[in-house]
Amino acid sequence: MKKQKILAAVCAIFSAGAVLATAAAPAQIMPQEAIFVRRGGSEFTYIYPAIEAESALAGLRMNQYFLNEKDREALHFDGQTDNSRIKRAYQVMLNDGDYVSIIDTGMSYTQGDAHPLSWKHGVTFNVATGKQVQWQYMLNDETAPQLTLAKINAMLRQSGYALAPDFAGLQTLPQNFYVDGQRNIHFLFNPYEIAPYAAGIIDLNTHVRAQ
C-alpha cells in the first residue's frame, strides 16, 4: 500500500511536469509603424504588432492578418481624394500562452467633417496555431447558454449605455469581440451601430470567461 502511494505521488509529479513542459509561452509582441502620405497633406499612420510565437508558422499567420489589414487600408487611402488623417494602432488585451487577443483601434478625420470617427475591432488568435478564434469556440457546455442572442440583448439593455431609441435588439450574434486579461469575453459596438455617436464605442463585458 505504501509503495502504491509513493508510485502515485511520483506519477503526479511527472504528470505536472509534463503539463508545465508543454504549456505554450506568451507570444513576443513588438510595435511596427508604417506611414503613407498623399499629395495634398493626407496621411495614414498604421502602428501594428509584429508577433513572434514558439511556432514560426503560428507567428507567420498572426502577422499576415495585420499585414493584410495594412495593405487593405493603404489601398483604400490611395483611392481617396479628400484631405484626411487616418491613424490605426493596437492594444494587447490578452497574451497568456493560449490566446493573443488584440484590439485594432482606428481614428479618421476628413476636412470638413463635424467630428472624427473612431472605431475598435477585436481579433483573437490561438497562439499554438496562429489561427483566428471566434468567441463561440471559446465556450463550453456550462458557459455557452450564457451567451445566447436573447441574453446578450438583455445585457445590452441593462448595461447603462445610452442605446439608440429605436434599438430593438441585435438580430444576429455579435462578432466583434476581444478577451481581457481575466479571460472575460467583451463585445464591441462602434458608433452608430446600436447607439448614437455621443455614446462612443460600447464595450460590453459579458463576465463570461473564455475556456
Radius of gyration: 22 Å
Structural class: alpha+beta
Q: Which CATH architecture of the largest domain would you pick?
A: 2-Layer Sandwich
CATH top level label of the largest domain = Alpha Beta
Low-pLDDT stretches are 1-22
Number of strands: 8
Kindly give the count of domains: 2
Q: Which superfamily, in CATH terms, is the homologous superfamily of the largest domain?
A: Fervidobacterium nodosum Rt17-B1 like
Give the N-to-C terminal Cα separation. Answer: 38 Å
What percent strand?
25-35%
Task: Please explain how this structure is put together.
- This protein is α+β, with helices and mostly antiparallel strands.
- The chain folds into 2 domains: 24-133, Heat Shock Protein 90 (2-Layer Sandwich); 135-211, Actin, Chain A, domain 4 (Alpha-Beta Complex), CATH 3.90.640.
- Helices cover 25% and strands 35% of the residues.
- Strands 1-2-3-4-5 form a 5-stranded mixed sheet, with helices on one face. The protein has a 3-stranded antiparallel sheet with strand order 6-7-8, covered by helices on one side.
- Strand 1 and strand 2 form a beta hairpin.
Summarize the model shown.
Residues 168-203 form the DUF3298 domain. With 211 residues, this protein is α+β, with helices and mostly antiparallel strands. Helix content is 25%, strand content 35%.
